């Protein structure tokens, strides 16, 4: 499915995590969606990426309010803990949530949560990260496999253009092994790398997606391979940042091209500075709003329209957009996903001016 125009990014000021009990918020006016006062939980996995607080949550809550003014969103973030997420999920069920939108910390552990919800008659929408071993009521995400293929293909083309010497190759820094979406990204990465003619020197699955884990592993590979490393396919901007930090710490400046994903402010700034080669723009307000639309349909007892089926569940996948220095202004600044003011802080002001962003 082709992604529509990106929605304007929402202001981040004053974002506050709700308490673990899942404090409800919403209007008491008449509903155009489900029954009056219906509760819909929106459970995100971690705070390692800023996207959940700054984009996914606002996009979901804004659209839900438009569709169901009396519905109460129950928001929580698990801070990377599957146990904490299970508590938050069970709390949402205890509070009477009729639909739970779940971005799982651990896709395997989430199976029991889906079963618990269905036993109580509640619906589950898998969000961003699929739950392959459970039949959820719907799955909404950007196309993670396509993301992996696009960042890898772009990176490989850049490496080849640099005419690497014989014996050199790339590293692959995947996402968390407990995240099924990371598995899809990894599959996409290999589809872009395996038959490219560019050797893979080593590969790593980053525990919990933590940049510091990626940095530590890459530092070890730098000690092992040194300048034989001519590129790194990193699965998101956090692991890309950790990778770049490892190169800087080793005194390799400039570092070889590094891919990313999520179009975070930090990742975009690294592209502007010339340290990161690419990222993926996937405005999370889009999938957040789509999850709200699906939730509203489920509350009404109607069947949400889908574009396909994944892991046995009806699915809508949205197309990502590859971003490099060449199209960053057009795809990010001109579309108001991030502003020049946000990107062009004092550290990056000169690079922004050179690239025509400011």
SSE blueprint and pairings:
Elements: E1 39-44, H1 51-67, E2 72-77, H2 82-94, E3 99-102, H3 110-119, E4 123-127, E5 138-142, H4 144-161, E6 169-174, H5 180-193, E7 200-205, H6 211-225, E8 229-234, H7 237-249, H8 265-273, E9 278-281, H9 284-300, E10 308-310, E11 313-318, E12 321-324, H10 328-333, H11 340-343, H12 349-355
Parallel strand pairs: 1-2, 1-3, 3-4, 4-5, 5-11, 6-7, 6-8
Antiparallel strand pairs: 9-12, 10-11
Helix pairs in contact: 1-9, 2-3, 4-5, 6-7
Structure, explained:
By secondary structure, the chain is α/β, with parallel strands linked by helices. It has two domains: 39-136 and 283-319, Response regulator (Rossmann fold, 3-Layer(aba) Sandwich); 144-282, 3-Layer(aba) Sandwich (Rossmann fold), CATH 3.40.50.2300. The chain has helices spanning 51-67, 82-94, 110-119, 144-161, 180-193, 211-225, 237-249, 265-273, 284-300, 328-333, 340-343, 349-355; strands at residues 39-44, 72-77, 99-102, 123-127, 138-142, 169-174, 200-205, 229-234, 278-281, 308-310, 313-318, 321-324. The chain has a seven-stranded mixed sheet, with helices on both faces. It has a three-stranded parallel sheet with strand order 7-6-8, with helices on both faces. Helix 1 (51-67) packs parallel to helix 9 (284-300). The longest helix is centred in the middle third of the chain and has 18 residues, at 144-161. The protein is globular. Mean pLDDT is 90; it is low at 1-34.
């Amino acid at each position: 499915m082709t992604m529509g125009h990106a929605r304007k990014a929402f202001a981040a000021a004053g974002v506050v995590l709700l308490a673990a009990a899942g404090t409800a918020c919403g209007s008491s006016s008449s509903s155009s969606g489900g029954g009056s006062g219906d509760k819909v939980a929106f459970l995100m996995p971690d705070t390692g990426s800023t996207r959940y607080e700054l984009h996914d949550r606002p996009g979901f809550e804004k659209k839900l309010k438009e569709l169901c003014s009396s519905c109460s969103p129950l928001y929580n973030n698990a801070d990377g803990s599957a146990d904490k997420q299970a508590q938050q999920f069970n709390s949402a069920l205890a509070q009477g949530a009729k639909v739970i939108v779940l971005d799982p910390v651990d896709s395997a552990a989430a199976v029991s949560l889906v079963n618990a919800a269905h036993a109580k008659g509640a619906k589950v929408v898998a969000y961003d990260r699929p739950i392959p071993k459970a039949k959820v009521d719907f799955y909404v995400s950007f196309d993670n496999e396509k993301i992996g293929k696009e960042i890898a293909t772009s990176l490989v083309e850049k490496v080849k253009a640099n005419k690497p010497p014989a014996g050199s190759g790339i590293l692959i820094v995947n996402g968390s092994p407990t995240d099924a979406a990371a598995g899809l990204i990894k599959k996409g990465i290999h589809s872009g790398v395996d038959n490219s003619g560019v050797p893979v020197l080593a590969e790593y699955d980053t525990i919990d997606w933590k940049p510091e884990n990626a940095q530590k592993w890459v530092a070890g590979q730098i000690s092992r391979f040194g300048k034989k490393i001519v590129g790194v396919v990193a699965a998101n901007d956090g692991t890309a940042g950790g990778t770049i930090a490892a190169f800087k710490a080793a005194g390799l400046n400039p570092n070889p091209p590094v891919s990313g994903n999520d179009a975070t402010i930090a990742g975009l700034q690294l592209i502007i500075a010339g340290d990161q080669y690419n990222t993926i723009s996937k405005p999370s307000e889009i999938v957040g709003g789509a999850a709200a639309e699906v939730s509203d349909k489920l509350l009404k007892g109607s069947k949400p329209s889908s574009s396909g089926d994944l892991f046995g569940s009806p699915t809508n996948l949205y197309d990502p957009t590859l971003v490099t220095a060449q199209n960053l202004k057009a795809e990010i600044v001109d579309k108001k996903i991030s502003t020049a003011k946000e990107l062009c802080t004092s550290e990056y002001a000169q690079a922004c001016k050179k690239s025509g962003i400011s």
